[in-house]
Write a structure and sequence with these properties.
The chain is 22% helix and 29% strand. The protein is of the alpha/beta class. A 7-stranded mixed beta sheet has the order 6-5-4-3-2-1-14. A 7-stranded mixed beta sheet has the order 7-8-9-10-11-12-13, covered by helices on one side. The N and C termini lie close together (6 Å). The model has no long low-confidence stretch (mean pLDDT 97). It comes from Gimesia chilikensis. This is Ribonuclease BN.
């Protein structure tokens, strides 16, 4: 199974990172639709897409407005957009208001059920996360392997049971430990609690993502701190491909 990190930044794009979007090309599964969503067409391998939104903050949804041409030109047969009902209502009312973006792509908006069947005999579940306005985390279990995607949340320890034992955990790490106070204020995570979560949950690999766009260097979150607690930790980068 292969996942492509199309966008690994938070809040706004910078020269190194676009905002959140992850894609499993062979399955047509996409998580979030940030500014990096413009990259989706070059990776598509299916005629049907399932998009799972964590929440409706702009850095996670603006890319939905980038996909009009692929839909109008018949590059896909269907696109289902899953999310909480209030978030989907807000997207349709505001992002696609006539004054902002007058042509609504032919998306099928679906209120997120308790479970969703996904390709390759997978089952997707979600959990509510602590974040201003609310957010959800996702987990998919296939026969023989599993994935969890958790972003825009504070207090990672609260979802330990949900991610326990996954082969791949992709988790936001917006701040380094030195800015832990800001993590609490903004509803985001910092390095040590995320690495402790991966260690305590017994996951296979941890990928840190949703990085503060003000941090443009090679080590924006203190990767050595994370690796001391959980050695199999890597920093996500745009266009990184991971086999799991």
């Amino acid at each position: 199974m292969r996942i492509v990190l199309l966008g690994t930044g938070g809040y706004h794009p910078n020269d190194r990172r676009h905002t959140a979007c992850l894609m499993l090309p062979e399955s047509g599964i996409i998580f979030d639709a940030g500014t990096s969503f413009f990259r989706v067409p070059q990776y598509m391998q299916t005629r049907d897409l399932q998009i799972f939104l964590t929440h409706a903050h702009l850095d996670h949804i603006v890319g939905l407005s980038f996909f009009l041409v692929p839909m109008l030109t018949g590059q896909v047969d269907s696109v289902k957009v899953y999310g909480e009902a209030s978030k989907l209502d807000a997207i349709q009312a505001h992002l696609f208001s006539e004054e902002i973006f007058p042509l609504l792509p032919d998306y099928e908006f679906i209120t997120l059920p308790e479970q969703v069947s996904v390709p390759e005999q997978g089952t997707l579940r979600h959990i509510n996360l602590e974040h201003p306005g609310g957010s959800v985390g996702y987990r998919i279990d296939w026969p023989g392997h599993s994935l969890a995607y958790v972003t825009d949340t504070s207090h990672p320890e609260q979802h330990l049971e949900f991610v326990k034992g996954v082969d791949l955990l992709i988790h936001e790490c917006y701040f380094p430990d030195e800015q832990a106070e800001w993590a609490d204020k903004t509803g985001h995570s910092h390095t040590t609690p995320v690495a402790e979560l991966a260690r305590d949950a017994g996951v296979g690999k941890l990928v840190l993502t949703h990085i503060d766009p003000q941090q443009t260097g090679d080590d924006p979150v203190g990767i050595e701190v994370a690796q001391k607690l959980f050695p199999n930790t890597i920093l996500g980068e745009d266009l990184m491909e991971i086999e799991f």
